[in-house]
Amino acid sequence: MVNRTFTILLVEDDEADVGLFEEALSEVSISVELKVVNNGIKAKKYLLKEDEYSREPLPDMIILDLNLPRKNGRELLAEIKNEPYLKSIPVIIFTTSDLEEDVLKCYNAGANCYITKPSGLNTFFQVVETLCYFWLTTVKLPPRRP
Questions:
Q1: Predicted confidence (pLDDT) per residue in 106-138, tens digit
Q2: Of all helices (H) and strands (E), which one includes residue 127?
């Protein structure tokens, strides 16, 4: 097992889904610090370390919903993958949409993974657990930046 704490940025506006994600993470035996923002504007500020996010660590991974207020996930994904300082951070799309058009657009924009949110509680927990173990312990992540 890896001896470090990973930072995940969850970009999600649905409080119920945030709560489920937090609960699912509590079942994972990996040390994870979850940072949550509820819209694309705040996510961009977080990633650029602006305003109240100036002291926040860059995440090891971003979990991104597509349907967000103010700046949607598709726009944010494109901005992340076009920013040299951010583009190596894995972005996992975690959304209710299973439209082929959304899947294709996200992969073409540089998403590392696309997951349709499961509707069942047990499946939701299994997906979050699998996601964490794969991306945080199996995959070789790029070096952390300050």
A1: 999 999 999 999 989 999 999 999 999 999 999
A2: helix 121-133
DSSP state of 70: S
Amino acid 59 reads P
* Residues in a beta bridge with 63: 10, 92
Structural domain boundaries in the chain: 6-134
Check if the beta carbon of residue 95 is closer than 8 Å to that of residue 66: yes
Q: In what order do the strands lie in the sheet with 6-11?
A: 32-37, 6-11, 61-64, 91-95, 113-116
Domain covering 6-134, topology: Rossmann fold (3.40.50)
Output DSSP code: residue 81: H
